[in-house]
Amino acid sequence: MPPEPDISGLNTSRRYNQWLGGKDNYSAERESTATIVSVLPNMMAAAREGRAVVLRAVRHLVADRGIRQILDVGAGRPLSPNVHEVAQSENPASRIVYVDNDALVGVQHRGTTVSGSDGVTEFVDGDLLDVERLLADEQLRAVIDFSQPVAVLLGSVLHLIDDDQRAHDAVRALIAALAPGSYVVIVHGTFDTLPSEVQSKVRALIATGEHGVYRARSRDEVAAFLDGLEVIEPGIVSSVEWQPGEETTTSVADAMCWVAVARVP
Ligand SMILES: C[S@@+](CC[C@H](N)C(=O)[O-])C[C@H]1O[C@@H](n2cnc3c(N)ncnc32)[C@H](O)[C@@H]1O
């Protein structure tokens, strides 16, 4: 039996889905969102920019850099278009594995991730903080061939890990498994772009512990995840500066985000 949704408390993955325009959220998420938006009026638009840049990076990697395999870690609830739709529209043979540690995300993905005749789309329950187990997963290894290039997506997930050491160890372990020519995409929340009085208010809100973990990191801290990799143009920039599209409407200040796409040499 799939797990019953627990709607008694805040679920940050459901709240994020609300920010992206999804309908699967309850009073705990709506109340938390209202409080956050009172301090950060552009939070929902920033989330949408963060999501949009993941899809632009996927299109670029598949269309222009020959990527055929994608591992989307911390995939979130499915929204259309999702990563497999963008990748397979560029190359129908694209192979995608979504990973999330929220069991309900898995239930929702299983209803929507349908493999086409050429490509493969799969969901695997897994934890970024247990990379060894994740990479040993048979279902994952049936789709992803680690002797060939893979794009690993870490979209808005690293800032949900408070412990710097564990976050770095996890990313390092993932990178170590990748063949040359692979890519890592990081979309990471930051408060670098906010005025100091707003930063203080947001940090006070996070410190209440009522709104879930949000470990905003500076540009240098994000860069440290990519040690030894070649960050491709335009470098580590705001989501709104990374190959901006028609949907890009927010300012760098309001986007509150660092994005990097880096190649494994
Ligand atoms: C904010 S959503 C991001 C979704 C998507 N990657 C995007 O960029 O739009 C973060 C997701 O990461 C998942 N998550 C958080 N910590 C995780 C972990 N340690 N391992 C795997 N997934 C995790 C959450 O359950 C949530 O669905």
**CATH class identity:** Alpha Beta
CATH homologous superfamily heading: Vaccinia Virus protein VP39
Percent helix, as a range, is 40-55%
User: What is the terminal-to-terminal distance?
Assistant: 44 Å
- Widest sheet, order of strands: 3-2-1-4-5-7-6
* CA gyration radius, whole angstroms: 18 Å
CATH architecture: 3-Layer(aba) Sandwich
Q: How many DSSP E strands?
A: 7
What does this structure look like?
With 265 residues, the chain is an alpha/beta fold. The chain has a single domain, classed as Rossmann fold (3-Layer(aba) Sandwich), CATH 3.40.50. Helices cover 41% and strands 14% of the residues. It is built from 11 helices and 7 strands. The chain has helices spanning 12-19, 27-39, 43-65, 83-90, 103-112, 131-136, 138-143, 164-176, 196-207, 219-224, 252-255; strands at residues 69-73, 95-100, 120-125, 151-155, 183-189, 230-231, 257-263. A 7-stranded mixed β-sheet has the order 3-2-1-4-5-7-6. Helix 1 (12-19) crosses helix 2 (27-39) and helix 3 packs parallel to helix 4 (83-90). The longest helix is centred in the first third of the chain and has 23 residues, at 43-65. The N and C termini lie far apart (44 Å). The mean pLDDT is 93. S-adenosylmethionine binds at residues 13, 16, 51, 54, 73-76, 99-102, 105, 127-129, 155-157, 160, 187. The site of S-adenosylmethionine (SAM) has 21 residues, from helix 1, helix 3 and strand 2.
